[in-house]
Amino acid sequence: MKYLVYLYLFLSLSCTNYSVSKSKTVPPILVSIGSISGVTSGYQIKMRVTNQEPFFAGYKLYVGPNENAARNPSDLNSGFSCTSGPAIIPNQPIEYVLEIASDASTLPANGNRLCTYQTTLKSGEYIAVRTLLVSIQPSNQGGNRINPSLPSNTLIVP
């Protein structure tokens, strides 16, 4: 018991370098969008990301009639959340895949898939993606929150 008291005192007095400011992350880079063969209204988005942060929480997809609406929605909660949950934590500098379909259960298996989204995209719409990070805050500052990154570049749905 005595050692626990010493350990507590050591950790509480020696740990003075902490921050309550939001973590910033590099936004994803969207490389291409294409149809998924055999899946009605199915699209595959290839992107490059590296998120080595321990507080990575996934991606949010935004759709709009123009580039500005997709990149800067009036409400950042209005986008589409990943229905499958992040399948893998992207920490290697390779291309990863997001897949979108009106019925996500019809999507074939894919080893580089990060997330699936269940929605219908229309030709000519613009899409953008934001990385989500958990921000751990003291309760007197609002508690833990999910913070989106800056927006990715946009792609036009073919």
Polypeptide structure, described:
It is a single chain. The protein has 158 residues and is mainly beta. It has one domain: Immunoglobulin-like (Sandwich). Helices cover 11% and strands 34% of the residues. The strands form two sheets. Strands 3, 4, 7, 8 and 9 form a five-stranded antiparallel beta sheet that branches. A four-stranded mixed beta sheet has the order 1-2-5-6, with no helix packed on it. The longest helix has 13 residues, at 2-14.
Question: How is this structure best summarized?
Answer:
The chain has 158 residues and is mainly beta. It contains 2 helices and 9 strands; from the N terminus they run H-E-E-E-H-E-E-E-E-E-E. The strands form 2 sheets. Strands 3, 4, 7, 8 and 9 form a 5-stranded antiparallel beta sheet that branches. It has a 4-stranded mixed beta sheet with strand order 1-2-5-6, with no helix packed on it.
Features:
four-stranded mixed β-sheet; 9 strands; 2 helices; 158 residues; Immunoglobulin-like
Structural class from helices and strands?
A: mainly beta
Q: Terminal Cα separation, in Å? A: 66 Å
Q: Which ranges are low-confidence, i.e. pLDDT below 50, for 5 or more consecutive residues?
A: none
For the largest beta-sheet, the strand count, sense and barrel status come to: 5 strands, antiparallel
- Total domain count: 1
CATH architecture annotation: Sandwich
* CATH domain class: Mainly Beta
Task: List strands and helices in order, with pairings.
Elements: H1 2-14, E1 29-35, E2 43-48, E3 56-64, H2 67-71, E4 80-81, E5 95-101, E6 113-118, E7 126-135, E8 145-148, E9 155-156
Parallel strand pairs: 5-6
Antiparallel strand pairs: 1-2, 2-5, 3-4, 3-7, 7-8, 7-9
